[in-house]
Protein backbone atom coordinates (compact mmCIF):
# COMPACT_ATOMS: atom_id res chain seq x y z
CA UNK A 1 0.00 0.00 0.00
CA UNK A 2 1.21 3.50 -0.86
CA UNK A 3 2.25 5.57 2.18
CA UNK A 4 1.71 8.85 0.32
CA UNK A 5 3.40 11.73 2.14
CA UNK A 6 2.02 14.16 -0.48
CA UNK A 7 -1.64 13.37 0.13
CA UNK A 8 -3.76 16.47 -0.53
CA UNK A 9 -7.27 15.07 -0.08
CA UNK A 10 -10.06 15.85 -2.56
CA UNK A 11 -9.95 18.57 -5.20
CA UNK A 12 -11.50 19.86 -8.41
CA UNK A 13 -10.24 21.49 -11.57
CA UNK A 14 -10.20 25.28 -11.35
CA UNK A 15 -12.47 26.62 -14.10
CA UNK A 16 -13.20 30.26 -14.92
CA UNK A 17 -16.98 29.67 -14.78
CA UNK A 18 -16.61 29.08 -11.04
CA UNK A 19 -14.41 32.08 -10.18
CA UNK A 20 -17.27 34.17 -8.69
CA UNK A 21 -18.53 31.32 -6.48
CA UNK A 22 -15.04 30.32 -5.36
CA UNK A 23 -13.93 33.85 -4.55
CA UNK A 24 -17.11 34.33 -2.49
CA UNK A 25 -16.37 31.26 -0.31
CA UNK A 26 -15.32 32.09 3.23
CA UNK A 27 -14.37 28.44 3.70
CA UNK A 28 -13.45 26.40 0.64
CA UNK A 29 -15.46 23.16 0.28
CA UNK A 30 -12.54 21.40 -1.46
CA UNK A 31 -9.04 20.61 -0.23
CA UNK A 32 -7.12 21.72 -3.33
CA UNK A 33 -7.36 22.83 -6.96
CA UNK A 34 -5.76 21.69 -10.19
CA UNK A 35 -5.15 24.25 -12.94
CA UNK A 36 -4.61 23.65 -16.65
CA UNK A 37 -1.15 25.17 -17.02
CA UNK A 38 -1.80 26.55 -20.51
CA UNK A 39 -4.79 28.56 -19.23
CA UNK A 40 -2.48 30.59 -16.99
CA UNK A 41 0.72 30.87 -19.03
CA UNK A 42 0.92 34.47 -20.28
CA UNK A 43 -2.37 35.19 -18.45
CA UNK A 44 -1.93 38.24 -16.23
CA UNK A 45 -5.59 39.21 -15.94
CA UNK A 46 -8.28 38.28 -13.43
CA UNK A 47 -7.41 34.58 -13.64
CA UNK A 48 -3.94 35.33 -12.31
CA UNK A 49 -5.52 37.32 -9.47
CA UNK A 50 -7.75 34.37 -8.56
CA UNK A 51 -4.76 32.04 -8.65
CA UNK A 52 -2.75 34.35 -6.37
CA UNK A 53 -5.61 34.39 -3.87
CA UNK A 54 -6.17 30.63 -3.91
CA UNK A 55 -2.51 29.66 -3.59
CA UNK A 56 -2.53 31.34 -0.17
CA UNK A 57 -5.56 29.31 0.91
CA UNK A 58 -4.96 25.77 -0.35
CA UNK A 59 -2.56 23.62 -2.40
CA UNK A 60 -2.49 24.05 -6.18
CA UNK A 61 -1.19 21.57 -8.74
CA UNK A 62 -0.38 22.29 -12.40
CA UNK A 63 -1.67 19.96 -15.12
CA UNK A 64 -0.44 20.51 -18.67
CA UNK A 65 -1.39 19.36 -22.15
CA UNK A 66 1.58 20.54 -24.22
CA UNK A 67 4.78 18.77 -23.16
CA UNK A 68 4.44 16.65 -26.31
CA UNK A 69 6.65 13.97 -24.79
CA UNK A 70 5.91 11.33 -27.40
CA UNK A 71 6.59 13.48 -30.47
CA UNK A 72 9.64 13.26 -32.72
CA UNK A 73 9.84 17.08 -32.59
CA UNK A 74 12.52 18.61 -30.32
CA UNK A 75 11.33 19.59 -26.87
CA UNK A 76 9.76 23.05 -26.87
CA UNK A 77 12.13 24.98 -24.64
CA UNK A 78 10.16 28.22 -24.96
CA UNK A 79 7.09 26.46 -23.57
CA UNK A 80 9.14 24.78 -20.86
CA UNK A 81 10.59 28.13 -19.76
CA UNK A 82 7.09 29.59 -19.48
CA UNK A 83 5.94 26.50 -17.57
CA UNK A 84 8.86 26.93 -15.18
CA UNK A 85 8.05 30.63 -14.67
CA UNK A 86 4.41 29.78 -13.92
CA UNK A 87 5.57 27.18 -11.41
CA UNK A 88 7.73 29.80 -9.68
CA UNK A 89 4.60 31.94 -9.27
CA UNK A 90 2.18 29.16 -8.27
CA UNK A 91 4.59 27.05 -6.18
CA UNK A 92 2.52 23.96 -7.07
CA UNK A 93 2.59 20.76 -5.10
CA UNK A 94 3.50 19.08 -8.39
CA UNK A 95 3.35 19.37 -12.19
CA UNK A 96 1.78 16.77 -14.47
CA UNK A 97 1.20 16.08 -18.15
CA UNK A 98 0.29 13.12 -20.37
CA UNK A 99 1.85 10.04 -21.93
CA UNK A 100 1.08 11.11 -25.48
CA UNK A 101 2.13 13.33 -28.35
CA UNK A 102 0.27 16.51 -29.24
CA UNK A 103 1.93 17.68 -32.43
CA UNK A 104 4.62 17.27 -35.07
CA UNK A 105 6.58 19.59 -37.36
CA UNK A 106 5.89 22.40 -34.91
CA UNK A 107 2.11 22.09 -35.28
CA UNK A 108 -0.01 21.61 -32.14
CA UNK A 109 -3.06 19.41 -32.80
CA UNK A 110 -4.56 20.30 -29.41
CA UNK A 111 -5.31 16.63 -28.89
CA UNK A 112 -3.72 13.91 -26.75
CA UNK A 113 -2.64 11.39 -29.37
CA UNK A 114 -1.75 7.75 -28.56
CA UNK A 115 1.79 6.41 -28.33
CA UNK A 116 3.13 3.28 -30.00
CA UNK A 117 3.93 1.13 -26.97
CA UNK A 118 7.31 -0.25 -28.03
CA UNK A 119 10.80 -0.46 -26.49
CA UNK A 120 12.04 2.16 -28.94
CA UNK A 121 9.21 4.51 -27.99
CA UNK A 122 9.84 3.86 -24.29
CA UNK A 123 13.50 4.85 -24.58
CA UNK A 124 12.58 7.96 -26.57
CA UNK A 125 10.00 9.13 -24.00
CA UNK A 126 12.21 8.25 -21.02
CA UNK A 127 15.04 10.41 -22.34
CA UNK A 128 12.67 13.35 -22.82
CA UNK A 129 11.07 12.94 -19.39
CA UNK A 130 14.51 12.97 -17.78
CA UNK A 131 15.46 16.17 -19.61
CA UNK A 132 12.19 17.86 -18.62
CA UNK A 133 12.62 16.87 -14.97
CA UNK A 134 16.18 18.16 -14.97
CA UNK A 135 15.10 21.50 -16.49
CA UNK A 136 12.17 21.99 -14.13
CA UNK A 137 14.21 20.83 -11.15
CA UNK A 138 11.44 18.52 -9.98
CA UNK A 139 9.83 15.14 -10.54
CA UNK A 140 6.81 15.24 -12.84
CA UNK A 141 3.64 13.13 -12.92
CA UNK A 142 2.49 11.46 -16.12
CA UNK A 143 -1.13 10.59 -16.87
CA UNK A 144 -2.46 7.62 -18.80
CA UNK A 145 -4.57 9.01 -21.69
CA UNK A 146 -7.86 7.78 -23.10
CA UNK A 147 -7.21 6.04 -26.42
CA UNK A 148 -9.38 5.07 -29.37
CA UNK A 149 -6.92 3.04 -31.43
CA UNK A 150 -3.90 0.83 -30.83
CA UNK A 151 -0.78 0.37 -32.96
CA UNK A 152 -0.14 -3.03 -34.52
CA UNK A 153 3.51 -2.58 -33.58
CA UNK A 154 2.73 -2.47 -29.85
CA UNK A 155 5.05 -4.67 -27.81
CA UNK A 156 3.88 -3.65 -24.34
CA UNK A 157 0.61 -3.01 -22.56
CA UNK A 158 0.09 0.54 -21.34
CA UNK A 159 0.57 -0.50 -17.71
CA UNK A 160 3.83 -2.24 -18.61
CA UNK A 161 5.00 0.83 -20.53
CA UNK A 162 4.23 3.16 -17.62
CA UNK A 163 5.80 0.79 -15.10
CA UNK A 164 9.05 0.69 -17.07
CA UNK A 165 8.97 4.46 -17.59
CA UNK A 166 8.74 4.97 -13.82
CA UNK A 167 11.78 2.72 -13.31
CA UNK A 168 13.82 4.51 -15.98
CA UNK A 169 13.05 8.09 -14.93
CA UNK A 170 11.77 8.04 -11.32
CA UNK A 171 8.72 9.97 -12.54
CA UNK A 172 5.41 9.54 -10.74
CA UNK A 173 1.94 8.75 -12.05
CA UNK A 174 -1.36 10.53 -12.32
CA UNK A 175 -3.72 7.62 -12.77
CA UNK A 176 -6.91 8.66 -14.54
CA UNK A 177 -9.44 6.00 -13.52
CA UNK A 178 -11.93 7.22 -16.11
CA UNK A 179 -9.27 6.83 -18.82
CA UNK A 180 -8.61 3.26 -17.68
CA UNK A 181 -12.34 2.61 -18.03
CA UNK A 182 -12.59 4.30 -21.45
CA UNK A 183 -9.51 2.64 -22.95
CA UNK A 184 -10.35 -0.80 -21.56
CA UNK A 185 -13.86 -0.53 -23.00
CA UNK A 186 -12.59 0.62 -26.39
CA UNK A 187 -9.84 -2.01 -26.67
CA UNK A 188 -11.45 -4.92 -24.87
CA UNK A 189 -9.09 -5.56 -21.97
CA UNK A 190 -9.88 -6.03 -18.29
CA UNK A 191 -9.42 -2.77 -16.32
CA UNK A 192 -8.79 -4.80 -13.17
CA UNK A 193 -5.63 -6.23 -14.77
CA UNK A 194 -4.51 -2.66 -15.41
CA UNK A 195 -5.14 -1.61 -11.81
CA UNK A 196 -3.42 -4.72 -10.45
CA UNK A 197 -0.23 -4.25 -12.46
CA UNK A 198 0.36 -0.49 -12.40
CA UNK A 199 3.01 0.48 -9.76
CA UNK A 200 0.78 1.58 -6.88
CA UNK A 201 3.53 3.27 -4.87
CA UNK A 202 4.17 5.65 -7.78
CA UNK A 203 0.56 6.86 -8.04
CA UNK A 204 0.49 10.34 -6.50
CA UNK A 205 -2.79 11.58 -7.96
CA UNK A 206 -6.04 10.22 -9.36
CA UNK A 207 -8.46 11.74 -11.88
CA UNK A 208 -12.18 10.97 -12.00
CA UNK A 209 -14.55 12.10 -14.77
CA UNK A 210 -17.58 11.17 -16.83
CA UNK A 211 -17.22 9.92 -20.45
CA UNK A 212 -19.80 9.84 -23.25
CA UNK A 213 -21.04 6.82 -25.20
CA UNK A 214 -20.62 7.22 -28.99
CA UNK A 215 -21.87 4.08 -30.69
CA UNK A 216 -19.53 1.23 -29.74
CA UNK A 217 -16.95 3.62 -28.31
CA UNK A 218 -16.52 5.66 -25.15
CA UNK A 219 -15.16 9.19 -25.50
CA UNK A 220 -13.36 11.02 -22.70
CA UNK A 221 -15.56 14.14 -22.64
CA UNK A 222 -15.58 15.19 -18.96
CA UNK A 223 -19.10 16.51 -19.48
CA UNK A 224 -21.28 14.56 -17.04
CA UNK A 225 -21.26 12.76 -13.68
CA UNK A 226 -18.88 9.89 -13.01
CA UNK A 227 -20.48 6.56 -14.03
CA UNK A 228 -20.89 3.65 -11.65
CA UNK A 229 -18.19 1.62 -13.42
CA UNK A 230 -15.57 4.30 -12.70
CA UNK A 231 -16.62 4.56 -9.05
CA UNK A 232 -16.21 0.79 -8.73
CA UNK A 233 -12.73 0.95 -10.26
CA UNK A 234 -11.81 3.84 -7.96
CA UNK A 235 -12.89 1.76 -4.96
CA UNK A 236 -10.67 -1.11 -6.13
CA UNK A 237 -7.75 1.26 -6.65
CA UNK A 238 -8.02 2.72 -3.14
CA UNK A 239 -7.72 -0.78 -1.73
CA UNK A 240 -4.31 -0.99 -3.43
CA UNK A 241 -2.99 2.54 -2.91
CA UNK A 242 -4.49 3.73 0.32
CA UNK A 243 -5.09 7.50 0.54
CA UNK A 244 -4.30 9.17 -2.78
CA UNK A 245 -4.98 12.76 -3.86
CA UNK A 246 -8.20 12.62 -5.87
CA UNK A 247 -9.49 15.18 -8.36
CA UNK A 248 -12.80 15.48 -10.19
CA UNK A 249 -12.61 16.83 -13.77
CA UNK A 250 -15.61 18.52 -15.42
CA UNK A 251 -14.72 20.44 -18.58
CA UNK A 252 -17.86 20.70 -20.74
CA UNK A 253 -21.53 21.28 -19.88
CA UNK A 254 -20.04 22.56 -16.64
CA UNK A 255 -22.60 22.88 -13.83
CA UNK A 256 -22.37 25.23 -10.87
CA UNK A 257 -19.50 24.89 -8.42
CA UNK A 258 -21.73 23.39 -5.71
CA UNK A 259 -22.84 20.60 -8.06
CA UNK A 260 -19.24 19.80 -9.00
CA UNK A 261 -18.35 19.66 -5.31
CA UNK A 262 -21.33 17.36 -4.66
CA UNK A 263 -20.00 14.97 -7.31
CA UNK A 264 -16.52 15.12 -5.75
CA UNK A 265 -18.00 14.28 -2.35
CA UNK A 266 -19.05 10.88 -3.69
CA UNK A 267 -15.33 10.10 -3.77
CA UNK A 268 -15.14 11.08 -0.09
CA UNK A 269 -17.95 8.61 0.67
CA UNK A 270 -16.06 5.79 -1.03
CA UNK A 271 -12.81 6.74 0.69
CA UNK A 272 -14.60 6.67 4.05
CA UNK A 273 -15.91 3.17 3.32
CA UNK A 274 -19.53 4.22 3.11
CA UNK A 275 -21.87 1.83 1.25
CA UNK A 276 -21.66 2.35 -2.49
CA UNK A 277 -25.45 2.25 -2.67
CA UNK A 278 -25.52 5.71 -1.10
CA UNK A 279 -24.26 7.11 -4.39
CA UNK A 280 -26.68 8.27 -7.04
CA UNK A 281 -26.78 5.79 -9.92
CA UNK A 282 -25.46 7.09 -13.25
CA UNK A 283 -26.18 5.36 -16.55
CA UNK A 284 -24.34 6.60 -19.65
CA UNK A 285 -26.76 5.48 -22.35
CA UNK A 286 -26.83 2.06 -20.74
CA UNK A 287 -23.07 1.53 -21.03
CA UNK A 288 -22.25 -2.15 -20.47
CA UNK A 289 -20.05 -3.07 -17.55
CA UNK A 290 -16.39 -2.24 -18.01
CA UNK A 291 -15.62 -5.79 -16.98
CA UNK A 292 -17.24 -7.29 -20.09
CA UNK A 293 -16.61 -4.60 -22.68
CA UNK A 294 -16.48 -5.37 -26.41
CA UNK A 295 -13.35 -5.05 -28.55
CA UNK A 296 -13.51 -2.08 -30.93
CA UNK A 297 -11.53 -2.56 -34.14
Automatic annotation (TrEMBL):
Q: Name one Pfam family in it.
A: MbnB_TglH_ChrH
Q: Where is the signal peptide?
A: none
Residue runs in coiled coils: none
- Name the NCBIfam families for this protein: PRK05409.1
Supply the name of the protein. Answer: DUF692 domain-containing protein
Amino acid sequence: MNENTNYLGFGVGLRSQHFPEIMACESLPVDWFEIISENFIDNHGYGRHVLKELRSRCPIVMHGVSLNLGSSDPLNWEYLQKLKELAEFVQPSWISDHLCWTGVFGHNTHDLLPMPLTEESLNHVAERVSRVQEFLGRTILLENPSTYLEFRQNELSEWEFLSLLVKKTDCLLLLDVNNVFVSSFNHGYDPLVYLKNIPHSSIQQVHLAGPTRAGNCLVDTHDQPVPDQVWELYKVLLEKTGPVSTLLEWDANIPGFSEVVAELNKARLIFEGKPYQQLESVDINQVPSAFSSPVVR
